[in-house]
Amino acid sequence: MGNYRMCLCFIRKFKVMEAGPPPDVREAFKDYTTGGSHMTTEQLRRFLVEVQGDSGAEAEKIVDQILHKRHHVTRFARSGLTLDDFFFYLFSADHNPVINNQVHQDMTKPLSHYFIYTGHNSYLTGNQLNSDCSDTPIMKALKRGVRVIELDLWPNSDGVHVKHGRTLTTPVELRTCLRTIDEYAFLSSPYPVIITLEDHLTPELQAKVAQMITEIFGKKLYRPECECLEDLPSPDDLKYRIIISSKPPKEYKKLKAAKSKRSKSEKDSDDDSWGKEPLDITNDQYIDDLSSSDTHEESDEGQQESEYNRLITIHAGNAKGGLKEALKVEANKVRRLSLSELALEKATEHHGTDVIKFTQKNILRVYPKGMRFDSSNYKPLLGWMHGAQMVAFNMQGYGRSLWLMHGMFRANGGCGYVKKPDFLMDGETFNPKNDFPVKKTLNVKVYMGDGWDMDFKRTQFDLCSPPDFYTKVTIAGVPGDAKKMKTRVIEDNWTPVWGEEFTFPLRVPELALLRIEVHEHDITDSDDFGGQTCLPVSELRPGIRAVPLFNRKGEQYNSVRLLMRFQFV
Fold first, then answer.
1. pTM of the predicted model, to two decimals?
2. Which of 115, 202, 308, 504 has the smallest count of CB within 10 Å of its CB?
3. What is the distance in angstroms between the CA of the first residue and the CA of the last residue of the chain?
4. What pLDDT is attached to residue 228?
5. Is the pLDDT score of 72 beyond 90?
6. What is the C-alpha separation between 478 and 512, in angstroms, rounded?
7. Residue in 136, 131, 169, 196 with CA at minimum distance from that of residue 389
8. What is the pLDDT, as a whole number, of residue 463?
9. Tens of pLDDT along 9-52?
10. Beta strand 528-536 pairing with 483-486
11. Where are the annotated segments for Disordered (predicted)?
């Protein structure tokens, strides 16, 4: 019973109702037990194969686990699962997950064949102007599965520290960041961690950085056999290895010399985030981090610089010409190109085919525009639709764009590498604006939700009554697939039952993400947030599944979840 005070002397009482199994669950139990009171292991196996699309090999294990958890007995001591046991199993995210939690994609292709979980200014704890720099965000990102960490290196009186240049952010020692990367790099995934270095150092300090990196990472550090790779290694080749990507020292000096000739109003690169946004990208000023087509030559600093240079696996640098020239694919070398989100928009508008062809062999990194002082993020799908491997995000930011990023990289067991669809890698160039025929249709049924009374305070949503929940279900993907739907509002109920079904025709399901949000309807104010998740459509397991929800930061709630059904036709 829940009590809610309406006035000083009037209290409303609401009974907390426990919703039973939905009709579809009852019907499935009845069908597969032929009207019996218990579901045997063999009957569950048939259900798993015919309804859930599973192999059925886990049936015996599931029965054992459910009976032990609910009744502390084995299957030999009971006839099987009761209806309540069966419902408990279906509504358990641990026993009945909505997506596969194992790496299952081919990991033997070059790195350019994968979307890679990428952070931007990975050391910042908050906004881009005056927040603290720390190794804590790096640790959190790596534990979440992020595989690309960005560090901005600046000189200080004691050597080298990491900070966002030309701002009031407080620095953190480079050694601290490197040690954290070394400790947490492979806790969540065995696949390679790439460190992108924005280098503002003298040759002497570069030599110190090279020594520091070598000492801390040891055998984990990948050293390329040749100065410029013709093809990138695969994630499998680089398991438990750390890779460095940066401008070779000679290229950095050329970039600095070129930038010194420009006025401050012309700058828009990740090195100088606070200039005006680009109006046109025909000039190379809007292209950052593209390796020069020249072969590397020893500088006057000689050994110091070449040792630093030898650590760089994926070369980046500056373009000599415009974007068309920058996107040319060279047969004998691979490289990394970085574009701001605005530059990417213009690049895909005018040179979409060239962008996709470039990413079939090389690495394209996209980063937030300089005006995102609050560490917000942009829409990532434009980059993915054009093959960009490194769509760099502020992981400390919140919002729907970051939820999409989390959703994309729940794919492939959450290992941080998601293989790009074949149509982004073959000879024919994909155009996301085309009017494609429907390839498959996804039917989504939202049965019910539960767990808010466990994870939220009683008065979190309403002071005077239980919450009024509704669910939004949307598709994010190519323009032709975008669609938004929502359930009706269920009033005064901590365990809402909707039982509503939605249909989503999909033209490019390989790039589609299913967004799910629960909100609490509020008549007098904006609706309250009740949880969210984002799931890659290509990874959805068919059948009746438990869908755990996450908070605004992307952290999973302990109890809040939905019961849903997914069918592909």
1. 0.90
2. 202
3. 43
4. 81
5. no
6. 7
7. 196
8. 83
9. 555 565 666 789 999 999 999 999 999 999 999 999 999 999 99
10. unpaired
11. 253-306
* Lookup result for tokens 């299952």: 104
Beta bridge partners of 156: 159
Q: Which amino acid is residue 427, in one-letter code?
A: G
Residues 532/517, Cβ–Cβ less than 8 Å: yes
- List, for residues 544-562, the tens digit of each pLDDT value: 999 999 999 999 999 999 9
Distance CA 500, CA 479 (A): 25
Q: How many residues does the chain have?
A: 569
Q: Which two tokens mark 569?
A: 């036709």
Q: Is 68 a catalytic residue?
A: no
Ramachandran assignment for 238, one of left (phi > 0), alpha (psi -120 to 50 degrees), beta (any other): alpha
CA distances for 216 relative to 154, 177, 200, 204, 249, angstroms: 19, 11, 21, 19, 21
Contact 416, 145 (CB under 8 A): yes
Q: Which of 113, 120, 161, 386 is catalytic?
A: 120
Q: What is the pLDDT of residue 51?
A: 97
80-93 tens-digit pLDDT: 999 999 999 999 99
Catalytic residue among 161, 164, 315, 351: 164
Specify the residue for token string 């050293």: 223
Closest CA to 159 of 111, 114, 98, 201: 201
How many whole angstroms separate alpha carbon 359 and alpha carbon 327?
Answer: 9
Rounded to the nearest 5°, which phi and psi values hold at 4?
-130, 125
Q: pLDDT (tens digit, 9 = 90+) per residue, 315-332?
A: 996 555 788 889 999 989
Q: Which is it for strands 469-476 and 417-419: parallel, antiparallel or unpaired?
A: unpaired
Distant-in-sequence, close-in-space partners of 57: CB < 8 Å, separation ≥ 6: none
Q: Beta strand pairing status for 556-568 and 193-199?
A: unpaired
**What is d(CA 153, CA 162) in angstroms, rounded to the nearest whole number?**
5
Q: Distance between CA atoms of 239 and 376, rounded to whole angstroms?
A: 32
The span from the CA of 191 to the CA of 180, in Å, is: 17
